[in-house]
Amino acid sequence: MPALGQHRRRLARSLAVAGTGVAVVALPLFGATGAFAATTEPTTATTAAAPATAYPDNLDGWIRESLDVMAQNGIPGSYDAIHRNIMRESSGNPYAINNWDSNAAKGTPSKGLLQIIDPTFAAYHVPGTAFDPYDPVANITAACNYAADRYGSIDNVFGAY
């Protein structure tokens, strides 16, 4: 194969790894004769730590991120059970607040996706999440931690808890 053809193939192969976290220098296919060495080898180590998982900023993403945090902390629960309870408690609104029940009457309204009160949130907060009951991931994770302690898992919760 002619030298130019080999360089183009190397360049194409180098560009193919661009989505894997390896830095690649992108050069035009034509007329770039002096910088091919920069494209034949990655410029960063391929053993670098994997990038953090990106979660969408929506209910699905919040549940999936919470499940990952829960798995790291030994907290049981399933996507379906979390989703079921969220839809019953807040209809998926992370800023939902209950200002009318007995907790609210005592000055401690239930807040967030899984309607947790501040003292319960503080007691069951999971390190590594925000210390904010309105933060969707922190709310889900703390509420699931509480449900695991009280009921064995959020999977066992089918009503107000």
Structural features:
two-stranded antiparallel sheet, 2% strand, mainly alpha, 161 residues
Give the gist of this structure.
With 161 residues, the protein is an all-alpha fold.
Count, helices:
7
Largest sheet properties: 2 strands, antiparallel
Q: State the strand order across the main sheet.
A: 1-2
Derived from helix and strand composition plus strand pairing, the structural class reads: mainly alpha
Q: What's the average pLDDT?
A: 79
List segments where confidence is low: pLDDT < 50 over at least 5 consecutive residues. Answer: 1-47
Principal-axis shape equals globular
Helical residues, percent: 40-55%
Number of strands: 2
Order of helices and strands: HHHHEHEHH
Range of strand content? under 5%
The rounded Rg comes to 24 Å
Kindly, what is the distance between the CA atoms of the first and last residues, rounded to a whole number of angstroms?
Answer: 71 Å
